[in-house]
Recover the amino acids of this structure.
């Protein structure tokens, strides 16, 4: 029998404070060889990857959630504590790598001392050593190793070879002191540990008398009550400008690609049902959604870069006061900003909010942020409202975004008012030193978000497109000139739903388009296109649809549908992610219910009022 | 400049809550209030772990407007954004 032992991979876990560069180090070690999932039973992200030591031994590394302490205050910290104290379903790691920021040892050394008590084999990685040298901070590494009685290595997670010393060290025999039971420390013990930290710190670190870190000076400007907000407004303006201009440029290229693909299929397939399915159903439908990928990625590029640079926590600081008026804290800012790309990663980003009521409120209002899937319907309707007036169109566009934000803040305020728990919500948020974002981590972050989006396109949206196409086609294959559509299943469905939506001014075509639109709002435009039974490639359908809508729909109907798109809960994936993140069907239905009610009410009032005012 | 220290002396106070410390003035942490409420206790424990320990120098770098909420507080090499009720657990002696 072969012995599996010598080839067994070494299982290590990376432990460290938030902002210590731990994930950048993990990304450097494992590259793209990582798996992202959740820990069993909790919505905390579990990242695992593989790499080899210098001598070639296989290592499987777990990137634990950042934790200031094992006295957990958040779900993230609880998972980290449970994994390394052996209280989880995860196997206890063979070795802990405690990552400490060399520019901020005063804060990060404490976790090292706390982890040392666990008795597991432990290696300290002094990260950001390059930055520490720039700041004139000198660390006597060998003295630190002696004081701690641990192996200490220097790493630079932003250099290609910055982790080589760690990979060499992992080939050594690294014994621990033997496992011991972990017990939460009380106030006295915490103070005693801090005394140890200070003693070791003073013995091994020498730093310039004058702080060379420019963060304070930058902070005084970026968190200024006037200039700070001016900079924030400018940053957000530039971000959204890039999303719209850069996004539409890249989207145009993707559109052309799908157009060419349709042409290719049409040239090589015989005319018939199957070709119709492939060209109109799959390529048309899926292509019409993939064109938003550039917009989503550009927004996330900005968000990830701003977050990694340390700016977003400052923005959260500035917005904490205004947001607390609505019962939220500055911590909700980053999840809500992400929701402008897509509510799903936005809702997942609420995991950083440790206070449950704040987190739940943020989850419930995230779908009100105008996600990128609303852009095509907004564009179509606004263009139909102001065919010759680009300025008014742009202003109404901005107005729709603002309306979503105002509605979200109002809902948050109502939730706060109705909640019996009046406990003050905590903030306690680190404002980390400014730094240049790590390119590798940016790319990996973008890749993850692109995959979330593409997975939706490949599942829900693909299925919807096919079903939609089938509803139109199978009962009575449509002919080029109009009428037969009425006799299809889709026509019947639209006719029946029309009674529900008539009070808010929706005709049969809109009513039908809203059926798949309830599952994914991206498909509303292509569904409308299909409902008006127009042939041709993407660009042509848009053009024709715009012309027909401009002429055939009343002002009241156009406005009513716009308002509907602002509020309506039209995304199955959002429902699924709310259920998963809150662990509760009830919260999911509350979200769906209030959004539906709000949408119907807003559209009803808009339609009836506009009809009243515009009728002769 | 020293009216602030003078005012405290007048009132016979040696320490004040970190939430009362004016912007840009250094102070030294004297002690922390240990509350009875378990949630607040967890919070105070965390503040200690983050470095707000007796003897440490602190400074309010920026305060939010209006109502001095929240506060950006520098301790050691780190800046934290704290709500005023969180900062109030930390008792400080302002530098003269």
């Amino acid at each position: 029998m072969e012995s599996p032992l010598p080839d067994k991979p070494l299982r290590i876990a990376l432990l460290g404070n938030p902002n210590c560069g731990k994930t950048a180090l993990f990304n450097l070690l494992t590259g793209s060889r990582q798996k992202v999932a959740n820990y069993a039973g909790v919505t905390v992200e579990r990242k695992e990857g593989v790499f080899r030591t210098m001598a070639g031994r296989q290592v499987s590394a777990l990137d634990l959630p950042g934790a200031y302490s094992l006295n957990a205050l958040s779900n993230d910290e609880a998972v980290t504590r449970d994994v390394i104290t052996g209280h989880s379903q995860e196997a206890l790691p063979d070795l802990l790598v405690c990552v400490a920021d060399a520019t901020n040892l005063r804060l990060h050394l404490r976790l090292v001392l706390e982890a040392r008590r666990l008795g597991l084999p432990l290696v300290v990685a002094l990260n950001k050593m390059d930055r520490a040298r720039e700041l004139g901070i000198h660390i006597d590494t060998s003295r630190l190793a002696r004081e701690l009685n641990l192996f200490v290595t220097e790493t630079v997670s932003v250099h290609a070879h910055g982790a080589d010393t760690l990979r060499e060290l992992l080939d050594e025999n690294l014994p621990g002191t033997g496992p011991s039971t972990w017990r939460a420390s009380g106030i006295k013990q915490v103070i005693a540990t801090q005394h140890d930290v200070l003693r070791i710190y003073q013995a091994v670190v020498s730093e310039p008398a004058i702080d060379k870190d420019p963060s304070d000076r930058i902070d005084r400007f970026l968190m200024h009550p006037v200039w700070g907000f001016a900079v924030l407004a400018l940053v957000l303006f530039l971000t959204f400008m890039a999303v719209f201009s850069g996004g539409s440029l890249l989207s145009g290229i993707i559109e052309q690609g799908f157009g060419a693909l349709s042409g290719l299929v049409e040239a090589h397939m015989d005319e018939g049902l199957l070709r119709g399915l492939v060209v109109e159903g799959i390529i048309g439908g899926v292509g019409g959604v993939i064109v938003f990928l550039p917009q989503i990625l550009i927004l996330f590029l900005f968000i990830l870069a701003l977050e990694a640079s340390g700016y977003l926590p400052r923005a959260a600081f500035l917005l904490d006061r205004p947001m607390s008026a609505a019962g939220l804290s500055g911590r909700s800012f980053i999840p809500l900003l992400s929701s402008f790309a897509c509510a799903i990663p936005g809702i997942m980003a609420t995991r950083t909010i440790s206070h449950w009521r704040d987190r739940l409120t943020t989850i419930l209002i995230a779908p009100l942020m105008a996600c990128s899937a609303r852009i095509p319907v907004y564009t179509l309707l606004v263009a139909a409202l102001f065919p010759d007036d680009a300025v008014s169109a742009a202003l109404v566009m901005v107005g729709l975004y603002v309306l979503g934000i105002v509605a979200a803040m109002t809902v948050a305020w109502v939730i706060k008012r109705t909640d019996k728990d009046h406990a003050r919500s905590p903030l306690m948020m680190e404002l980390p030193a400014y730094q240049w974002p790590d390119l590798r981590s940016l790319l990996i972050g973008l890749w993850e978000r692109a995959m979330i989006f593409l997975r939706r396109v490949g599942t829900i949206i693909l299925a919807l497109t096919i079903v939609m196409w089938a509803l139109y086609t199978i009962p009575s294959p449509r002919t080029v000139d109009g009428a037969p559509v009425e006799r299809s299943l889709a026509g019947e469905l639209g006719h029946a739903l029309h009674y529900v939506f008539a009070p808010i001014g929706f005709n049969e075509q809109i009513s039908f388009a809203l059926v798949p639109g309830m599952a994914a709002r991206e498909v509303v435009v292509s569904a409308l296109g299909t409902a008006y039974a127009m042939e041709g490639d993407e660009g042509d359908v848009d053009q024709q649809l715009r012309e027909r809508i401009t002429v055939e729909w009343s002002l009241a109907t156009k406005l009513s549908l716009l308002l509907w798109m602002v509020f309506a809960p039209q995304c199955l994936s959002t429902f699924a992610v709310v259920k998963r993140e809150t662990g509760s069907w009830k919260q999911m239905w509350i979200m769906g219910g209030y959004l539906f009610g709000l949408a119907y009410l807003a559209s009803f009032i808009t339609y009836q009022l506009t009809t009243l005012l515009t009728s002769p | 400049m020293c009216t602030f220290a003078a005012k405290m002396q007048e009132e016979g106070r040696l320490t004040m809550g970190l939430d009362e410390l004016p912007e840009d003035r250094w102070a030294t942490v004297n002690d922390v209030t240990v509350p009875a409420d378990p949630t607040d206790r967890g919070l105070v424990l965390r503040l200690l772990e983050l470095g707000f320990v007796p003897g440490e120098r602190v400074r309010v770098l920026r305060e939010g407007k209006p109502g001095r909420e929240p506060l950006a507080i520098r301790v050691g090499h780190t800046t934290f954004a704290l709500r005023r009720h969180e900062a109030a657990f930390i008792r400080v002696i302002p530098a003269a």
About this structure: The two ends of chain B are 9 Å apart (CA to CA). Chain B touches chain A at residues 34, 39, 42-51, 53-54, 61-62, 64-67, 69-70, 72, 74, 76-83, 85-86 (CB under 8 Å). Chain B has a mean pLDDT of 87.
